[in-house]
C-alpha cells in the first residue's frame, strides 16, 4: 500500500532504521552520567557502604571492651582517628556506627516508600469517599512533626535498629503516598487502562501491570530522598540521646557523645561523624536529582 | 499610515531557509531550502503532514524558533529582516507588523485576565495611547471579529466564552495593530466544523478588507480549498509544489501532492456519484439478523443535584452483526459517552444497553467477562492508547493474558499474525510504543483490539489524530479486517467524510440526543433535519470550485431558508 510509505515519522519516533530497544536504556544511562554531581553522589554512597561493611575486615578493632586507660587519645599510628571517651577506636567506631546509620536509613526509606506507594495507589485508584478519608489521614499525619512523634515513641519503647526502622518507616510514608496518589489519578484514566477495563480486565491487573510500573520512576527518585531524610532523622534522634543504646551506636549518637568533649579540643570525636552524615545525605540527594534527570522523558 | 509603503513589497519573503534542531540523538533537519513569498492581501496556505516542517516555517517568520534551532537563509516580513533568534528588536515587529493565531484558543489566552485587557495590552505595547482609548479600540475590535455585545463582553474572562468565541478574541488580538502579515497555524483544527466555518468566514473577510497577507498553516485540504488563493505543499522539510489553489488541488503535478489529495476522504454531496469505497452495503445489513449492540432509551447523567448533567438523553439504536454504524456529532454531543456506555464503563441512569442480546451490567461477574472478551476497543490518542512501559508484544497480547488464553508460544504466533494483518513489519514485536509513529501505534491498538476475534469493535475517533495518508491506510486495514472477521463496528467520529466511507448506517448526535439516523446514503446526502444539513454544509470539501459553489449556496440558502 503506497499510503503507508509516505507515513512521515514523528519527531522522536523512528519508524525506519529503528534503533535497537536497548538504546532507550543507553540514553537513560547517558542522561544519568551527564549529571556529574549525581555520579559523584553514587561513588560516595558506594564508598560509604564499603567503608562501613567491608572496612572492619581490613581495619579490625575491639568495639566491645571498654578500655578506660586509653580514653580520648589523639590520632596516632595505632588509632588512626584516636579513641573516644571510653577507649573505643574512633575509626572502627565510625564503621560500626555507619552500619547502623546506613541500615536504618536504607530500610526505613524503602519501607516508607513501599507503604506510601500502597496507600497512595489504593486511595487514588479507588477514589470517592475511601480516597477522601485516606488522604485526610495523610494530611493530619503531615501536620504533626515527625521528630516529635519519634521522640515520644523512643521514650516509650526501648530503641534498637529494628524499632527505629519501623517507626521512621511508619512516619515517613506520607509524602510518597501523596505523590503516588496524584500519579495514579492521571494513570487510571489513560486510554490503555480504559481499553483494558472495557474488555474485562480486572482491577488487580490494571494496578499491577499498568499503574505500579508507571509510577516506578517517581518512586525510585522519591526513595533516594526518603533514605537521605531517614539518615538525618536517625541522627537527630540519636543526637538527642533517644537513638540506639550503647554499646551500639550510630553517627548521630557519636556526634552527641563527642560534643561534650568539644571544649577539650577532641576534634576527632566530632568532625568525622558530622562530615560522614553531611556527605552521605548530600550524596543521596544528588543521586535523586540524577535519577530524576534520567527518568525525565518529556521528549517522548 | 505605513501601509502604502508596505504595499509595494512582499508581506513575507523567505529565501532559501534552512532550519535544523539539535536534539539528544544528534542534529535533525526540519526545513531544507524553502523559498516563498506572500503578497499583501494574499492568502497562502502551507500544507503538509506532521513533521513536514510547516509549523517551523511559520515560527521562523515570527522569530519564535527555540534556542536549539540553527537557521540559515533570509526571512523578511514587510521589509524587516528576521534573523536574530532572540533579538529584542523583534518585539517591535511582533504584534505590529506580523502576528499569529495559534491552534488552541484555550491556551493562547491568559485565563486570569479580562479579554478586553488582553486586547488593549497589544495596542499599548506598540502605540502610545491612553488606556481609555486602547479600551475603546478593544471594543471596536471585538465588534469587528463578530462578538455580540462587545461593551459587555470586554469584561469577560476567557472561561466565560465558547471555543469559537475565544478564537475570535485571539484573532482580535492578532489584528489589533493592523499587521501586514497574519500567521494562522492550524487556526480551526481544535474547533467543531460549524465553528470552523464561521472562523474561516471571519478570517476571509478580514484579509480581503484590510490588505493583510495571511500565511495559513494547515493539514486540512478542505480549509485550503475554502480559504486560500495560493498553496505550497511541504514534504519532509522541502517545498515540493506551489501554485494557485485551483491548479494545485485540481491538477496536482508532484506525485506526493497527488497521493496526499487521493488520501483525503471526500464527502459525497450528491446521490448520483457512485460510491467506490463502500462495497459491503445494504445486502450485508439485511442478511444479518443478529443484533450485536442495542441501545434502548439509554440515558446517562453525570453529577447530581444542581450540577446534574444529562450526557445522553434517551438514545436508541441497533447495530446488526457485521455491520458498521457511524456515530457523528460535534464535541460534547455524547458520542464518546455512548461508546463508554456500550462497553459497560458507564452505568446508564435509565434504559438498557444490550450487548449480543444480554444486558451486560446485570450479568454475574464471570459471564460478564466472557461477553467483554467479545469486544475490541480502539481509542483516539495514539500516544495514550499504549502503555509506554510495555513492548508491542505485551501490548497486543494483553487481552489474551487477561482472559488466560493460549500458551506462550501460541500467543507469540497469534500476535505475529495479527501484526501482519494490520500490515506492520514483524520486527516491531520487540519495540516499545515511543519508537513507533502515530499510524503504527494506532495499528498496534487495532491488532490488540482484534486479537480475541471480537464480534464488536468500538472505534472512538480511531483515526482522528492521524495524518490523512496514514488515516487512509489505517481505514483500509480496518475495512479489510472487517471483511475477514465479520465483526460489527461502532464507528465514532466527527469527520463526516470518514463516516460516510466506513459505515452503512449513521446516527447524528447533538447534545446527547440522536437527531437523525438511517442509511448513510440518504442521511448524509439528503438530510431531513436542519442540524445535519448545517453539519454537512460546514464541512469544507477539498475542491476549490465545488467549495466556492457550496459556500455561495449556503449564504443564499441562509437568507432564503432553502
Explained architecture:
- The complex is a heterodimer of chains A (300) and B (562).
- Chain A has helices at 2-5, 22-34, 36-58, 90-126, 128-143, 146-156, 161-172, 174-187, 191-198, 203-239, 251-259, 271-295.
- Chain A has 300 residues and is mainly α.
- Chain A has a single domain (80-295), classed as MetI-like fold (Orthogonal Bundle).
- Chain A has twelve helices and no strands.
- The longest helix of chain A is centred in the middle third of the chain and has 37 residues, at 90-126.
- Chain A starts with a helix and ends in a 5-residue tail after the last helix.
- Chain B has 562 residues and is α/β, with parallel strands linked by helices.
- Among the domains of chain B are: 99-178, no CATH class; 282-374 and 454-538, Rossmann fold; 393-451, no CATH class.
- Chain B is built from 23 helices and 20 strands.
- In chain B, the strands form four sheets. In chain B, strands 6-7-8-3-9-10 form a six-stranded mixed beta sheet, with helices on both faces. A six-stranded mixed beta sheet of chain B has the order 16-17-18-13-19-20, with helices on both faces.
- The longest helix of chain B is centred in the middle third of the chain and has 18 residues, at 193-210.
- Chain B is globular and about 75 Å long.
- Mean pLDDT of chain B is 82; it is low at 1-7, 279-288 and 557-562.
- At the A-B interface, helix 1, helix 9 and helix 10 of A face helix 12, helix 15, strand 16, helix 16 and helix 18 of B.
Amino acid at each position: 500500500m503506497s499510503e503507508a510509505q509516505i507515513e512521515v515519522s514523528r519527531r522522536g519516533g523512528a519508524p525506519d532504521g529503528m534503533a535497537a530497544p536497548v538504546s532507550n536504556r543507553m540514553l537513560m544511562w547517558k542522561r544519568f552520567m551527564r549529571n556529574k554531581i549525581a555520579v559523584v553522589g553514587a561513588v560516595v554512597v558506594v564508598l560509604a557502604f564499603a567503608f562501613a561493611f567491608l572496612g572492619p575486615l581490613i581495619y579490625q578493632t575491639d568495639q566491645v571492651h571498654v578500655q578506660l586507660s586509653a580514653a580520648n587519645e589523639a590520632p596516632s599510628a595505632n588509632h588512626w582517628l584516636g579513641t573516644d571517651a571510653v577507649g573505643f577506636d574512633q575509626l572502627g567506631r565510625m564503621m560500626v556506627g555507619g552500619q547502623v546509620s546506613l541500615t536504618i536509613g536504607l530500610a526505613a526509606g524503602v519501607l516508607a516508600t513501599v507503604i506510601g506507594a500502597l496507600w497512595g495507589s489504593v486511595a487514588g485508584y479507588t477514589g470517592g469517599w475511601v480516597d477522601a478519608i485516606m488522604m485526610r489521614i495523610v494530611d493530619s499525619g503531615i501536620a504533626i512533626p515527625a521528630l516529635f512523634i519519634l521522640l515520644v515513641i523512643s521514650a516509650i519503647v526501648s530503641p534498637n535498629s529494628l524499632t527505629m526502622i519501623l517507626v521512621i518507616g511508619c512516619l515517613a510514608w506520607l509524602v510518597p503516598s501523596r505523590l503516588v496518589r496524584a500519579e495514579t489519578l492521571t494513570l487510571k484514566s489513560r486510554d490503555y487502562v480504559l481499553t483494558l477495563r472495557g474488555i474485562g480486565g480486572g482491577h488487580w491487573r490494571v494496578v499491577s501491570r499498568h499503574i505500579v510500573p508507571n509510577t516506578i520512576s517517581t518512586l525510585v527518585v522519591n526513595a533516594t530522598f526518603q533514605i537521605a531524610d531517614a539518615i538525618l532523622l536517625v541522627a537527630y534522634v540519636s543526637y538527642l540521646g533517644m537513638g540506639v543504646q550503647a554499646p551500639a551506636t550510630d553517627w548521630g549518637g557519636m556526634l552527641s557523645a563527642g560534643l561534650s568533649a568539644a571544649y577539650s579540643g577532641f576534634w576527632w570525636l566530632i568532625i568525622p561523624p558530622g562530615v560522614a552524615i553531611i556527605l552521605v545525605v548530600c550524596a543521596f540527594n544528588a543521586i535523586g536529582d540524577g535519577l530524576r534527570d534520567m527518568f525525565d522523558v518529556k521528549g517522548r | 499610515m505605513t501601509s502604502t509603503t508596505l504595499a509595494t513589497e512582499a508581506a513575507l519573503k523567505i529565501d532559501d531557509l534552512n532550519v535544523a534542531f539539535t536534539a539528544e540523538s544528534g542534529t535533525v533537519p526540519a526545513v531544507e531550502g524553502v523559498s516563498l513569498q506572500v503578497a499583501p492581501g494574499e492568502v497562502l496556505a502551507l500544507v503538509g503532514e506532521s513533521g513536514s516542517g510547516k509549523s517551523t516555517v511559520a515560527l521562523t517568520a515570527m522569530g519564535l524558533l527555540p534556542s536549539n534551532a540553527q537557521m540559515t537563509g533570509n526571512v523578511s516580513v514587510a521589509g524587516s529582516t528576521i534573523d536574530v533568534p532572540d533579538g529584542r528588536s523583534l518585539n517591535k515587529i511582533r504584534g505590529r507588523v506580523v502576528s499569529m493565531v495559534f491552534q488552541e484558543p484555550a491556551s493562547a489566552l491568559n485565563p486570569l485576565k479580562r479579554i478586553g485587557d488582553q486586547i488593549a495590552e497589544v495596542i499599548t505595547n506598540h502605540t502610545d495611547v491612553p488606556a481609555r482609548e486602547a479600551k475603546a479600540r478593544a471594543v471596536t475590535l471585538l465588534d469587528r471579529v463578530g462578538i455580540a455585545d462587545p461593551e459587555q463582553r470586554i469584561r469577560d474572562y476567557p472561561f466565560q466564552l465558547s471555543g469559537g468565541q475565544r478564537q475570535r478574541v485571539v484573532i482580535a488580538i492578532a489584528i489589533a495593530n493592523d499587521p501586514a502579515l497574519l500567521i494562522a497555524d492550524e487556526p480551526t483544527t481544535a474547533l467543531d466544523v460549524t465553528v470552523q466555518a464561521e472562523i474561516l468566514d471571519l478570517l476571509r473577510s478580514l484579509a480581503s478588507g484590510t490588505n493583510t497577507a495571511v500565511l495559513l498553516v494547515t493539514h486540512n485540504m478542505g480549509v485550503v480549498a475554502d480559504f486560500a488563493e495560493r498553496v505550497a505543499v511541504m514534504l519532509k522539510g522541502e517545498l515540493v509544489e506551489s501554485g494557485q489553489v485551483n491548479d494545485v488541488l485540481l491538477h496536482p503535478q508532484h506525485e506526493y501532492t497527488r497521493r496526499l489529495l487521493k488520501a483525503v476522504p471526500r464527502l459525497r454531496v450528491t446521490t448520483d456519484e457512485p460510491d467506490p469505497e463502500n462495497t459491503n452495503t445494504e445486502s450485508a445489513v439485511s442478511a444479518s439478523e443478529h443484533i450485536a449492540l442495542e441501545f434502548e432509551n439509554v440515558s446517562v447523567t453525570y453529577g447530581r443535584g444542581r450540577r446534574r448533567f444529562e450526557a445522553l438523553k434517551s438514545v436508541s439504536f441497533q447495530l446488526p452483526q457485521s455491520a458498521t454504524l457511524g456515530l457523528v456529532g460535534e464535541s460534547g454531543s455524547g458520542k464518546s459517552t455512548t461508546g463508554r456506555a456500550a462497553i459497560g464503563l458507564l452505568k446508564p441512569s435509565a434504559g438498557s444497553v444490550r450487548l449480543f442480546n444480554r444486558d451486560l451490567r446485570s450479568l454475574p461477574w464471570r459471564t460478564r467477562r466472557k461477553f467483554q472478551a467479545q469486544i475490541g476497543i480502539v481509542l483516539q490518542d495514539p500516544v495514550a492508547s499504549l502503555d509506554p512501559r510495555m513492548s508491542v508484544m505485551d501490548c497486543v497480547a494483553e487481552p489474551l493474558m487477561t482472559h488466560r488464553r493460549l500458551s506462550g508460544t501460541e500467543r507469540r504466533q497469534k500476535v505475529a499474525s495479527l501484526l501482519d494483518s494490520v500490515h506492520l513489519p514483524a520486527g516491531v514485536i520487540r519495540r516499545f510504543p515511543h519508537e513507533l509513529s502515530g499510524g503504527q501505534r494506532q495499528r498496534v491498538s487495532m491488532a490488540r483490539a482484534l486479537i480475541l476475534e471480537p464480534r464488536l469493535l468500538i472505534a472512538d475517533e480511531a483515526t482522528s489524530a492521524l495524518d490523512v495518508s496514514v488515516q487512509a491506510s489505517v481505514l483500509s486495514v480496518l475495512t479489510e479486517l472487517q471483511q475477514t472477521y465479520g465483526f460489527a463496528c461502532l464507528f465514532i467520529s466527527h469527520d463526516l467524510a470518514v463516516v460516510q466511507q466506513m459505515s452503512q448506517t449513521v446516527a447524528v448526535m447533538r447534545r446527547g440526543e440522536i437527531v437523525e439516523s438511517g442509511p448513510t446514503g440518504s442521511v448524509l446526502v439528503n438530510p431531513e433535519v436542519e442540524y445535519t444539513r448545517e453539519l454537512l454544509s460546514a464541512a469544507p470539501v477539498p475542491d476549490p470550485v465545488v467549495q466556492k459553489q457550496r459556500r455561495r449556496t449556503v449564504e443564499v440558502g441562509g437568507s432564503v431558508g432553502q
